[in-house]
Every structure is written in C-alpha cells, then in structure tokens.
Design goal:
By secondary structure, this protein is an all-alpha fold. It contains seven helices and no strands.
C-alpha cells in the first residue's frame, strides 16, 4: 500500500510542479525539505527560501525555461541577472536551495538530472558556512512584502 501512495504522491507532485510551481514549492518545503542536518527549516528560513525560489522561477519564465528543462547555463545566467555572482554567500545559499529542489524534481520525475549538482562540483566551496544574520522583524516584514510574487507569477 505504501508503494501505491508513493506513486500517487509522486504523480500528484509532478502535476503540481507543472501547473502551480509556487504551491508545489510550498508543499515540498513544508512536507519534505530539510537542512543538511535533516532538521526542518525555521519559519524565517522558509520565507527566505520561498522568496529565493520565486525570484529564480521568475527568471526562468522570463527566459523561456521551465523547472523541467533549465540547465546549468540558466543558473549561471541567473547569477548575472540577479547580481548574485560576486556575492559568494548568496550564491552558496541559492545553489544549495536549487540542489535540494532539483533532487526532489528528479524524484518526482519532472527532471532527468540535477544541473545544480554540476555547479556544486565545479564551485570552490567555502570552508566554513557563512554566519547567518537575521533582519529585525519589521525590516524582514518589509522585505517579505517587497518580494511577494506579482499577480502574473
């Protein structure tokens, strides 16, 4: 029975990623995404990750790519369009998010490969994780309002 549920869940998530990527992302983030130490993400991190996903998805859509067919070249173009290329810490955060997401998209049969993994192998990683800095609540609220998807997203 669990195999049937797994197949049904995979099929449902596949369709959801195709029809409503932001809702699919939210569902995946809430149900399955976890940090490197396998703990659920804090709500603040979830909000930040969602904003990062929406920004990347907006970039893909603007350049005629989809979550199912983008490649490492699309990620590289995103770095430059989003002015993230020079910010190593931001690049690492985006790349880790894309890697986790792409592994999930491979599991739900939306992708055949993980282009973020290719870039992770090619990148020189920092020896230590960057220190997490959190915005004051009121500044965070204004940022979250600013990065909300547009009506056409």
């Amino acid at each position: 029975m669990s195999g049937w549920r797994s197949t049904t869940h995979t099929s449902h998530m596949h369709r959801l990623w195709l029809t409503d990527p932001t809702r699919a992302y939210d569902r995946w983030q809430a149900d399955e995404a976890a940090s490197a130490d396998h703990h659920p993400f804090a709500q603040r991190s979830i909000r930040q990750h969602r904003a990062m996903f929406v920004r990347f998805h907006r970039h893909l859509t603007a350049h005629g790519a989809t979550l199912g067919n983008f490649g490492s070249d699309d990620i590289e173009a995103f770095w430059h369009d989003a002015n993230v290329a020079a910010d190593t810490a931001a690049r690492v955060r985006f790349l880790k998010l894309m890697d986790r997401m792409c592994r999930h998209l491979v599991l739900v049969d939306l992708r055949a490969s993980n282009p973020a993994a290719e870039l992770m192998l090619a990148d020189q990683w920092l020896q230590d994780e960057p220190e997490c800095l959190y915005l004051p609540e009121e500044v965070d609220a204004r940022l979250q309002e600013f990065v909300q998807p547009l009506s056409g997203d």
